[in-house]
Specification:
The complex is a heterodimer of chains A (292) and B (261).
Chain A (H helix, E strand, L loop, with lengths): L1 H35 L17 H4 L4 H34 L2 H12 L6 H12 L4 H8 L13 H26 L3 H8 L4 H12 L1 H16 L3 H7 L6 H10 L4 H31 L2 H6 L1
Helix pairs in contact in A: 1-13, 3-7, 3-10, 5-11, 7-10, 7-11, 8-9, 10-13, 12-13
Chain B lengths: L5 H23 L16 H7 L2 H34 L4 H15 L2 H15 L5 H25 L3 H9 L4 H30 L2 H6 L7 H11 L2 H31 L3
Classes of the chains: A mainly alpha (292), B mainly alpha (261).
Chain lengths: 292, 261
């Protein structure tokens, strides 16, 4: 009994620094966001007295709905493009010889040692009316001289894919590494066509990697701020930009908090969905997942 | 069975996509032209110009200072967290603890930035280097904890017990057995914390005050208002520095692995 309580004491003691720090600087601030979202703003950019729903009510206008919808579709499209590109690459990396695997993995990671801002800036330069991509496409006659590649939602999707693609390739590659490729050959021996075998055998086999990869793009994309800020323009604004505007331009912390609450809830939704799905799968037993 | 060639072709295409912007940026940093309108001759003028920008140097100094402090503090907090999570893995407290350490890793940066801003405003803390430091420690702790935890999980617990059996006390076991074995994990976690801190823009942007500019904040305002070739030159320098650091750390870890145990 005494040993057990001493053990408990030691456990609490060694957990204390991180429990304390993260409670104070992670849990408490999150609670503050929820609380301040229900406070009125005062004219000096501070927080007024009393409680109100006004900050949430003011969100129900066509403009914020447009931004919310755009945030959602940009995140969905970016995640989809990342997955479509990352699956064949992960597949290739898992099958290539060990030596080339190392080289390719290195080549994929190296560009991402550069600062995030600098990579976005590089794209701004490329997409600029005088930039290389624009000139190349115009030369090929693919875009007119008046078409702008910069400052629209398409540019945001492009740069989001560029930024998060490595984070989708790596988990898919890790899952593909563990996949038994003989299953693909068995499927083909049983008469499946190559593409059919890929869709019905390989994709379910790397399911876990797919879910991780999807969350690695989708969640940060929902909270995107810098990418739409630099290459998005007014037509590419997302919730993150609105939050920053409320803080730095309108100086209304309560309204920024209300928007943040919306963002927190929309980030939690996919996470909870994945957790619930995983639990269901575990309960239904492993037999089912083999059969599928 | 013949394999399809197009996964290979796609991989090459994506690598081209990854490198194209960075290569163009490096080339342009040596371009005389002020705007990216074609090659107009080689020059180091933008690098020279960079040395006459005192604000960049001040920002770099702030960044280094904050990164060093945040690395040190988050190493201590992150390592104690990892030890707790590892040693008492099945307790209820640790399940909560794990969730608390893990969640900051999946929350979008802007949410962490805005919530810390709300805390500092509500508590009346003046925004500046101190608030940036506190914010950086907060996001670094989780990364350090996960890195050290991974190291702890593939390490042989019986060595610690052997040290105990041979009469080593708690302090001696920690100092002479646990810490040396954890060292690679600590180095990796520390390097990660340092680079995350030096690179962070979004969270810093929300909790920075007037006069507390870090390098990424400086780069951001240059992107917004400044001259592109200067950013190209600065980026190229940062790139070279990162590459040297990573190459050095990889060589270090490789020679350690090859060396006697």
């Amino acid at each position: 009994m005494r040993r057990a309580s001493r053990r408990k004491f030691r456990e609490i003691l060694i957990s204390l620094p991180s429990l304390f720090w993260l409670s104070l600087f992670f849990i408490v601030p999150t609670l503050f966001v929820f609380a301040i979202a229900l406070k009125p703003a005062n004219p000096f950019g501070g927080i007024g007295a009393g409680w109100t729903w006004a900050n949430f009510r003011s969100l129900a206008n066509p403009n914020s709905l447009t931004v919310a919808w755009r945030t959602l579709w940009i995140s969905v499209v970016s995640a989809a493009v990342c997955i479509v590109l990352a699956v064949p690459i992960g597949y290739y990396l898992a099958r290539v010889s060990a030596r080339w695997k190392g080289v390719f993995l290195m080549l994929i990671i190296v560009p991402f040692w550069t600062n995030f801002l600098i990579r976005i800036f590089a794209w701004k330069v490329l997409l600029h009316p005088e930039g290389a991509v624009k000139k190349g496409l115009a030369f090929l006659g693919l875009v007119g001289s008046q078409t702008s590649l910069l400052y629209n939602a398409g540019a945001v999707v492009l740069v989001t894919v560029y930024t998060f693609l490595p984070f989708t390739i790596l988990p898919i590659y890790a899952a593909a590494e563990k996949f038994d490729f003989q299953l693909l050959e068995a499927a083909r021996d049983l008469g499946a066509r190559r593409f059919q075998a890929f869709i019905k055998v390989f994709l379910p086999g790397i399911r876990r990697g797919l879910v991780t990869a999807l969350l690695f793009v989708f969640i940060p994309a929902l909270g995107s701020y810098v990418i739409p800020d630099i290459v998005g323009g007014p037509g590419g604004e997302m919730i993150g930009n609105k939050i920053a505007q409320r803080v730095f331009v309108d100086r209304s912390l309560p309204q920024a908090s209300a928007l943040s609450v919306v963002l927190i809830l929309s980030v939690l939704a996919p996470l909870l969905a994945v957790l619930v799905l995983q639990r269901k799968r575990e309960k239904s037993g492993s037999l089912l997942s083999v059969n599928r | 069975m013949r394999r399809s060639r197009w996964p290979f072709v796609l991989t090459l295409a994506v690598l081209f996509f990854f490198y194209l912007p960075i290569l163009i940026l490096i080339v342009n940093s040596f371009n005389v032209s002020r705007f990216e309108s074609g090659w107009q001759g080689f020059s180091l003028m933008w690098y020279k110009r960079l040395f006459h920008e005192p604000e960049i140097w001040r920002a770099a100094k702030n960044s280094l200072l904050i990164a060093a402090g945040a690395t040190a503090v988050s190493l201590v907090i992150g390592t104690t967290a990892a030890i707790a999570l590892h040693r008492f893995a099945r307790s209820r407290l640790q399940r909560f603890h794990f969730g608390l350490v893990y969640t900051p890793l999946v929350v979008p940066e802007i949410l962490m930035g805005i919530s810390l801003l709300m805390l500092f405003v509500a508590a009346g803390v003046e925004l500046g280097l101190l608030t940036i430091f506190l914010a950086h420690v907060t996001f670094c702790v989780s990364f350090v904890a996960m890195t050290v935890l991974a190291r702890l999980q593939d390490f042989d617990e019986s060595i610690v017990e052997a040290a105990r059996d041979l009469g080593a006390g708690w302090w001696e076991t920690t100092r002479r057995v646990l810490l040396p074995m954890l060292l690679p994990g600590l180095v990796a976690g520390g390097l990660l914390a340092f680079t995350l801190s030096i690179d962070d823009f979004v969270i810093t942007f929300f909790v920075a005050g007037p006069g507390s500019t870090t390098l990424p904040i400086r780069v951001y305002s240059m992107i917004k208002h400044g001259s592109p070739p200067l950013i190209n030159a600065l980026s190229t320098i940062l790139l070279v520095l990162t590459f040297t650091a990573v190459a050095a750390s990889q060589r270090l870890s490789r020679s350690r692995r090859k060396g006697p145990q």
